[in-house]
Amino acid sequence: MFDQLSERLQKVVKYLKGEVQVTEKNMAEALRMLRMAFLEADVNYKVVKDFEARIKEKALHREVLESLTPAQQVIKIVRDEMTEILGGTDKPLQFAPAPPSIFMMVGLQGSGKTTTTGKLARWALSKGRHPLLVSFDLKRPAAQDQLRSIAGALRLPFYAMTAEKMARPEEALRELIRETKDRGHDLLLVDTAGRLHVDDELMDELKLVKTILDPIETIYVGDAMTGQDAVKSAQAFAERIGISSIILTKLDGDARGGAALSVVMVTGRPIKFVGVGEKPDQLEVFHPDRMASRILGLGDMLGLIEKAEDAADLKEAEEMARKLRKAEFNLDDFRKQLGQLKKMGSLSGLLSHLPGTGPFKKLAAADVDDGKLLHFEAIIGSMTAAERDNPRIIDGSRRRRIAAGSGRPVHEVNQLLKQFQEMQRMMKGGAFKKMLGRMG
User: Fold this and answer.
1) CATH number of the domain where residue 14 is located
2) 240, 259, 387, 428, 432 from 365: Cα distances, Å
3) What is the largest CA-CA distance in the chain?
4) Contact between residue 209 and residue 136 where contact means Cβ atoms under 8 Å apart
5) pLDDT of residue 404
6) What distance, in Å, lies between the first and last C-alpha atoms of the chain?
């Protein structure tokens, strides 16, 4: 989502690194580049103005100007200020001291609210919680069909609200709380009404639900691709019913990213999760500092490591690390890693965590087709054990045989072998070994 903004901000970083000293003149040019990058990304004008003023004040401070690496100091200031714009520090979800904890999901129709409710329940389940899902919409009783379907697909418990119950909303909501406790659920996620626009009728209904349920978290779900419209509606929900936190959906979409860089400052409420795809596991905890680093092209290696830890088998991971250190990585190992990658999500999403500079620059910028993973697995599966262990023995006739056996063209076999050789060269490089050493 931040590709365009990230590209422009990396130009600012490159410009500053090329300057021996930070002066008022080159700082003015850097600030102009920053301002244009943010405005073109649809960031709120007031947020941009405040950001620019804070950068200027700190970057032209005497201690920075007299430091040995003023350009790096300024880049750090930019990263720190972007982190502040995005919320500063991580803000975990709140849970009630005595169960059940009630999460009320609010937002406009089409924002991904219902899908996100299911994703959040799945995340909570992985953390040892016992969620119950319910949909409550006085005007559209059929709205619960979608959530019921999502709950069924995720094998999560769902509480049905009948038309008869909806006719007595206060009584129905109090019964819902009793039922949640009786069933032993410690978390209740309530998907509420959504409309195409904010209106008084919708707000009155949500106020009623909030008054009776008294949720520990009132979570606004906004579509990041709608830019400033998402920010305006978040502000409206915050002012009229009160929200405690924000989840932005479709952060993997082709949009300018202004919502993520504006919504926290405008509403005063933190982003706690972001949706990065349609699949149930594509909901990520939001880390402002990591997101700022990714936007600036500095990477998010911690995020990548966490994804790997969730997907990997510990013994396999230790064995793989040993092979990487000793440069014993072969095509059998590569095939195992392809399987692990599929568990971790889209390959393009994973590569976006890598720094956009240094030895990882080409990998981070690579345009990857996730379908090729399946093709590569088929190609490796058509090789003999000796070929997988030592790809150098694969000559022209062997390549034709492997292509025929896998049902893929010869040029894809060549492409796989070339990429594998490049990966081996990178792993033998000093920068990669240093990174392995830092990671323990």
Assistant:
1) 1.20.120.140
2) 43, 24, 30, 21, 17
3) 76
4) yes
5) 94
6) 32
Residue 84: Cβ within 10 Å count: 18
CA 290 to CA 300: how far, in whole Å?
6
Q: How far apart are CA 75 and CA 84, in angstroms?
A: 14
The amino acid present at 419, given as its one-letter code, is: Q
Q: Does 238 lie in the same domain as 262?
A: yes
Residue 215's nearest CA partner among 183, 182, 191 is 191
For residue 201, tell me if it sits in a domain: yes
Q: What is the pLDDT of residues 336-385, one digit of tens each?
A: 777 766 665 555 555 555 555 444 444 444 445 666 778 888 999 999 99
Q: What is the pLDDT of residues 294-337, one digit of tens each?
A: 777 665 445 554 555 555 555 555 655 565 555 567 888 778 77
- For residue 123, the Cα-to-chain-centroid distance in whole angstroms is 14
Averaged pLDDT for residues 145-166 = 91
Question: Do residue 145 and residue 245 come from a single domain?
Answer: yes
Residue 48 domain flag: yes
Joined together, the tokens standing for residue 104 give 């009320």
Contact assessment for residue 1 and residue 255, using Cβ atoms and an 8 Å cutoff: yes
Q: How far is CA 164 from CA 168, 208, 213, 383, in A?
A: 7, 18, 19, 63
Tens digit of each residue's pLDDT (9 = 90 or more) over 43-58: 888 888 998 898 888 8
Residue 190 has pLDDT above 90, yes or no: yes
Helices 45-59 and 70-85, axial angle in degrees (round to 10): 150
Query: Whole-prediction pTM value?
Result: 0.70
What is the enclosing helix (H) or strand (E) of 158?
strand 158-159
Alpha helices in 127-262 (DSSP H): 144-154, 163-166, 169-182, 200-213, 228-240
Report the Cα 409 to chain-centroid distance in Å: 35
